[in-house]
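Objective 1.3, modelling of assemblies. Example input:
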Amino acid sequence: MRNADASDTPAPAHGSAPPEDEHNISRRQVLRLGSGGALALVIGAGAGWFDRARDSGPKTLLAPAPTTSTTTSTTSSTTTTAAPVTVTGIGEVDPRIITLGQRVVEVTGEDDIAELLAQLPEADQDRDPLERAAARVRTDFEMSDTISVDGWILAASEARAAAVIALFCSESVDSTC
Amino acid sequence: MLTDARALNSGSSLRADVCIVGGGAAGITIAMEMLNSDLSVLLLESGGTESDAATQALAQGESIGAPLTSLDNPVNLDQTRLRYLGGTTNHWAGFCRPLSPIDFETRDHLVVSGWPIDYADMVPYWDRAAEWVRISDADFSIGAWERRLGVSAPPIDTLAVEPLAFQVSFPTKFGDVYAPELRAAANIEVLLHANALNLAGNDGQRVAHVDVATLSGVSFTVEARAYVLAAGGIENARLLLASIDSDPAGLGNSNGLVGRYFSEHLQIYAGFGVLEPDFGEVSGLQGGEVAITQGRHAGHVHGAKFALGLTDAHLRSAATTGLELQFLPGRLPDGAPLQEQGVTVGDISAMMAHTGPEPGTAVYLQALAEQEPNPQSRVMLGSRTDALGMRRVRLDWQYTAADRRRVIAGLRVMAEAIGAADWGRLQLVPGGVHADAHDNLVSGELLTIFRSVPDEIDLSGFPVGVGFHHMCTTRMSRSVEQGVVDADCRMHEVDNLWVAGSSVFATAGTATPTMSIVALSIRLADHLQELLG
Ligand SMILES: Cc1cc2nc3c(=O)[nH]c(=O)nc-3n(C[C@H](O)[C@H](O)[C@H](O)COP(=O)(O)OP(=O)(O)OC[C@H]3O[C@@H](n4cnc5c(N)ncnc54)[C@H](O)[C@@H]3O)c2cc1C
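Predicted structure (tokens):
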């Protein structure tokens, strides 16, 4: 399936080459392609998005869903409890993002979708997922929360989101995630 | 006037108010500052007005320390400086930027640091230096750079990382540019093919005369009221060490500091980046041209480039040393480096389209770092002699594991600042970067085919090239225990001998040195004119 704001623009199939002019298209257009929108959605909407996507397709995966709990009256923090959710249909994914995600998994050893998702915080649902993703990535860089993958210095959230997608795709029964 | 010393009679004794040894950026600046003054100036230059192999061979020496390389290619000592009028400016790249305020400060984490002068003491000289090196002026602010080129700086300006502006002198060969005025000067005589061999001392506290020889066999002496050593960062130390009339350790060297703290700029081919702006924009950021609007070189065109640097505030708070990063859009195949392994520019571009800026250009990263002052890193004399019987240089260049760690940490800070500014992503692959250096050196292009091999990343042993900047071998200091020259560039131990050039830098900083060499030379010329005038 396509992501939420998918249009009629054809999405590249998993495994096919990206469009030639990809470097010249706008961010919004890129999202519409759907090929990596999942990445932004994983970061920007987090596990909640996976939750909402659970009924959308035939491919399923069990993953714990993060829940939020308030710990004291003055401070709050996000904690995770393992509750099984079904994650489905993250759409068609640019193969290059899967390549990236696979390397993240190899390099970090983090290969559990649930744990990876748990490290992506519950997102502010009022904002556009893409904006949320960009803000989250910027914050990671500002906080030096970065991961080095083959020397690429990546925001932890974008690296983990790529890993989630790669893992999800590797579990899927066909080649389209 | 320009005179060929080979035509002098052997045994002559020449006199002048000021004797300058060396006709490179430093020596020529001092002479030009004294043009038409009441002082008579004699400038001794080893070479002629063109390069010749026999003279150039006098610059050969042995390197016994860290390998001298550039782009993986070995570099010989005689390739790193040139011996004819104009000196090494005959093949410098022309990048100009003054030292920063932090460079003059005492930094407790370094074994020695701090100049006996402040940044404020240098401010009056930057504009005058800009004129000699033929750039617009001393405004190196990023705002001035934006105005001059009509482009916007990258949106990176954090507490730790800032954009830096370079002005690029389209190589101003000091010999070619200033020879006509030197030739016509009534009070200046430039003696070509004249090699200073020895600063003959009385009691080690004054120079009595300079012994000079030509390769053709003429020898003579020069007596002056003031002597200025301006033979370059390595040769200044060599001449002092070779001047052993009153002390076998050399002139002005009772504390053994002459030649110590030799510093280079560490040059690291750090990796790649995917940036938001497209190639044209990055090229524009890199290579705009600007016409000088005022002064003796009005109308002359110079370049303007940008880099990123660690801020002075970060250097203080992180107790680290300086680092600059340049982005060079090379002629990369399909705009991306050859990547047989791991995550590629293409993979990152796909990701960035959704989490960051739209990818526009693949660039390669060239870092230039300050090394910590290290007394073990030094210029000495070897046992072999040159064609004039002078002991050759033995260079033991050393940098430390901590230098490498600081480079890596600084690069990571920069990569994070770039990500936070939504400007791109960097791949840091020190040790795993390969360039077609030969093609680059021969064709003069920006680096061409690059390969990144992440499996070869070697954070503790990555190759470090030279910046061709020889610094700190006669460092400036408050006391004779810490350095060789005082705040006026006068030798602590020798009353009538001054030193010009980057050998007097107390610490290296990251700025390319020539702008500061020229500014210090102007300051020295003012000082000498006041003293002798
Ligand atoms: C490839 C390369 C690129 C560079 N790029 C840059 C750059 O982009 N920006 C920058 O700031 N710097 C750059 N530099 C460094 C720059 O060239 C030097 O900082 C500058 O030339 C130093 O000036 P100087 O007068 O101290 O020494 P030099 O220019 O080396 O001049 C010394 C002079 O002394 C003469 N001499 C030496 N020994 C004797 C003797 N015994 N008797 C008489 N004469 C003697 C020599 O013949 C020479 O003419 C570069 C250097 C190289 C090699």
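Chain B touches chain A through 36 residues (CB under 8 Å).
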